[in-house]
């Protein structure tokens, strides 16, 4: 056997190259699985929209606006009530004050009777608004239910049960059931959507 046996020679160079390829592939897979900052920013925008709506829903308009005629009305209720008169200053002053300038926002209202969304305010439409931005990379929305009466209810009559308002000797007093035309009023249900974008 003059030629000798031929076989595969496994060299150190091939082993090092194979190991480097495995390390690079493992690194690429690991980096692809790590969440990017987009999701953290999206979560932050969602919390911002939700907290802004909650603040407006729980803020008392009578205290904020120093107007006793608005007693028992939230700031969100005030903004929705005055939407027909184009109360952009209230939206800028109270919604815009709660959202940092690096975000743009839209405020929309959906009336249950109308069945469609109406845009109340969008910062991209107003050049003088410090929130004037175009939607580029992230957008998050939050919703709040708006409830109110479309007409005032009538006063109820006296109760037929053992209350001070029912007349008669002894307790329980025996009274005829009062003739009452009390109505609670017709309810209006709406949905407010605040979208924060960047």
Features:
alpha+beta; about 200 residues; four-stranded antiparallel sheet; about 30% helix; elongated; 4 strands
Summarize the structure.
With 198 residues, this protein is α+β, with helices and mostly antiparallel strands. It is 32% helix and 18% strand.
Structure description:
By secondary structure, the protein is of the alpha+beta class. The protein has a domain at 37-149 and 193-197. 32% of the residues lie in helices and 18% in strands. The chain is built from five helices and four strands. It has helices spanning 12-33, 37-58, 61-65, 75-81, 88-95; strands at residues 104-111, 117-122, 139-149, 187-197. The chain has a four-stranded antiparallel sheet with strand order 2-1-4-3. The radius of gyration is 33 Å and the shape is elongated. The mean pLDDT is 78.
Q: N-to-C SSE series? A: HHHHHEEEE
Helix content: 25-40%
CA distance, first residue to last residue: 78 Å
The order of strands across the largest sheet is 2-1-4-3
Strand content: 15-25%
Rg computed from alpha carbons, rounded to a whole number of angstroms: 33 Å
* Overall geometry: elongated
Structural class: alpha+beta
- What is the total tally of β strands? 4
Oligomeric form of this entry?
single chain
Low-confidence stretches: none
Note the main sheet: 4 strands, antiparallel
Spell out the blueprint of helices and strands.
Blueprint: H1 12-33, H2 37-58, H3 61-65, H4 75-81, H5 88-95, E1 104-111, E2 117-122, E3 139-149, E4 187-197
Antiparallel strand pairs: 1-2, 1-4, 3-4
């Amino acid at each position: 056997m003059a030629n000798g046996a031929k076989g595969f020679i496994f060299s150190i160079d091939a082993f090092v190259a194979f190991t480097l390829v495995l390390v690079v592939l493992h690194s690429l897979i690991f980096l692809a699985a790590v969440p990017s900052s987009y999701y953290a920013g999206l979560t932050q925008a969602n919390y911002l929209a939700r907290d802004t709506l909650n603040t407006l829903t729980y803020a008392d308009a009578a205290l904020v606006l120093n107007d006793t005629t608005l007693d028992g009305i939230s700031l969100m209720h005030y903004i929705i009530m005055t939407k027909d008169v184009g109360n952009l200053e209230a939206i800028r002053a109270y919604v815009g004050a709660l959202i940092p300038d690096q975000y743009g926002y839209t405020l929309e209202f959906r009336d249950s009777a109308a069945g469609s969304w109406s845009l109340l305010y969008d910062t991209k439409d107003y050049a003088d608004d410090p929130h004037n931005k175009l939607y580029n990379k992230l957008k998050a929305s939050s919703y709040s239910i708006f409830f109110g009466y479309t007409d005032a209810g009538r006063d109820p009559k006296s109760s037929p049960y053992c209350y001070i308002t029912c007349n008669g000797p002894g307790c329980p007093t025996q009274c005829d059931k009062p003739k009452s035309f009390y109505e609670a009023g017709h309810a209006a249900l709406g949905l407010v959507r605040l979208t924060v974008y960047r």
